Fold this sequence. Notes:
single chain; 518 residues; alpha/beta; Rossmann fold; 4 domains; 5-stranded parallel beta sheet; 15 strands
Amino acid sequence: MWTYEGPPHVGAMRVATAMTDVHYVLHAPQGDTYADLLFTMIERLKDRPPVTYTTFQARDLGKDTASLFMNSARESYERFKPKALLVGSSCTAELIQDDPGGLAESLDLPVPVVPLELPAYQKKENWGASETFYQLVRRFCSKEFFEEKNISVKNSPSCNILGPTALGFRNKDDVKEIKSLLEEIGVNVNVVAPLEASVEDLSKIPLADFNVLLYPEIGRLSAEWLFKNHNQPYTKTIPYGVISTRKFIEEVVSLVGIKKNQKIISLLERKLNNSRWYSSSVDSNYLTNKRVFIFGDATHVLSAVNVAKDEFAFEVVGIGTYSREFAREVRALAKNIDVDVLITDDYLEVEAEIERLQPELILGTQMERHIGKRLGIGSAVISAPMHVQDFPCRYSPQMGFEGANVLFDSWIHSLMMGLEEHLLTMFRDDFEFKDDATPSHLGSKGSIKSIKNTEDTSTSIKVSDELVWENDAESELRKIPFFVRGKAKRNTEKYAKNNGFEKITIETLYDAKAYYAK
Length: 518
């Protein structure tokens, strides 16, 4: 069964894998080790996650599973020597109620033990990652721990970047892009967490002047705690797209008290990227009011709606998220732009909504990519869950000015924009552009041999038991560019069936076009 999120212990694994010196002891049956593959096969990490499974089996349930966990925890520390140990249960082990936190504390290990209570049957992966990061921040950024470390060197103005994890959608590239942007503004990056952070790095988080919150699903709970306990404000703008990146820079400048001098203004002007020019071009104007459906995690959906609407002039016809913790924000945005909203983690409901809305582009997860492929609708992946092709070898951020370039390329190319339609119309009768044309690289000698026409004097073509296309309607259909022809054909047949027609004439074709253009 497809699912948008795994159980919460997978979220905890994402945090542990992101960090450099934390180990996670997971009380889990043998089958739950499948989660390793998410990191080694999809994200293509060279090392397996820093997770030790107790891997109890059915025969162990009648024995002492508590001692099995204690042995695993002790052996994990002795083998890996982490600076902190996370302990918890998977969804199956949760039913045994062995209390991994209490058991690990009783071992009196020489490193901090952070127990995780992740209700597997009520919460999901992103919540688990958020809760895990929050517990780590509370433990290692507490005033007592901070004062005990006696850390006092402060390099102002500075910030922390909160939220990026392992298995996050383009998280590593986003961090690289935003770090570069902040440094150009004149803001030092103190700590990035949890991605590539150590336990010692976590203890330095309170030294920064403010926090940059890139991924609210993971970092907002911790950012709010840091604001309350260390008086650290955090950014509210996600630097996604050209307009939001500008607003992000202005917000950062105001937080650190830098005057909006010529240096900052010139930075804004200099960083206006290619996508801004392209989105103002004639080719891009052809895409004005293209219908788009957006679904994914809340951060990317909320940001993508603004880019689609305000930068590319798309018509957003529907939005949704599987992030139930952020349902209020997504519903508010849907109400603001007057579209239907879908809050669900059932991909079949998403597929039904896409079929109902008939968009021309889908921005979503790998689930929506499969749905788009089945329905013949162009799509671009903008959010987790994703597959291996969404961890490209090249630098491909989603945030910042370079991220805006990537968004333009991936979204616009999915619509096959630009001169293609004009060329197809202009050269419709050219031998290379006919539907039965041979691939151009084969040349004229490789032309497809035509099948001899057996005397067919009929004036219509039967396409199903109920509907028949008249020849003139079929000919008119072929004049429609191939990348929208399928949609036109489906709409016409649907219109004909709904109106009880047995034959599709050229008038039916145009009536259907007028009906669906309303």
